[in-house]
Amino acid sequence: MRIKALVVDDNQNNLLLESDLLASAGFEVFVAENASSGVAIAEGIKPDIIIMDVRLPDMRGTEAAKALRRNKEICNVPIVFVTASVLADDMDEIRNIPNSGFISKPINTRTFVKEVRLHLRKKALLIDDNRSNVALEKDLLEFAGFEVFAADDASNGIILAKKEKPDIIIMAMRPPDMYGSEVALLLRQDIETYAIPIVFMAASLIEDGMEEIRSITKSGFISIPINTRTFAQEVRQFIM
User: Fold this and answer.
1) Which of 13, 88, 143, 232 has an alpha carbon within 20 to 30 A of 196's alpha carbon?
2) How large is the angle between the packed helices 61-69 and 35-45, nearest 10 degrees?
3) pTM score of the predicted model
């Protein structure tokens, strides 16, 4: 079944370019030239993702998004805003809408489809015995549209990784039962989990085991304490 994408933009050139790129990548594409039509079409077709301009002729895209979030049938559909604005107020408005993100314009035609795919619902696995960290990271990721699983030790984390096949694993440097680097090596040796990106939560880039981790393919780091405003976007970057 093809992924249904709704593109909402009053600029005909942008609308045509974005819809053509998505259609060429196999998406089933629907279009609207204003926010009201976009909301009505979304309610009818229930798309898998919505790509929307921030500044539409009849209302702001963020206002349309709030209307969509009030509809229980489509309240979880990811919304990607395409915007040339870098104003703090605009970015704050977007960040306050659950399961949303943005792509800067003019769009990069080589990466646009990949950026859109990033915002489709993803699975994340957290491996950490610190309940406060897990609760915070889980809340931030779920707000950003992720389906989140959690394990409080490495052994259960490996079991969950094989069962759920997450799109990304976010792991403490030192789970209680083994080092993070040992966990990563075990995951890399299993055909079911070898390609899953692994992000380590590190308080310092000179922590013990850091050199070993740097040699592990498809891995990276996010500094702790985390930046709650950018955490979900940082995680998404590792899925690209």
Assistant:
1) 143
2) 30
3) 0.69
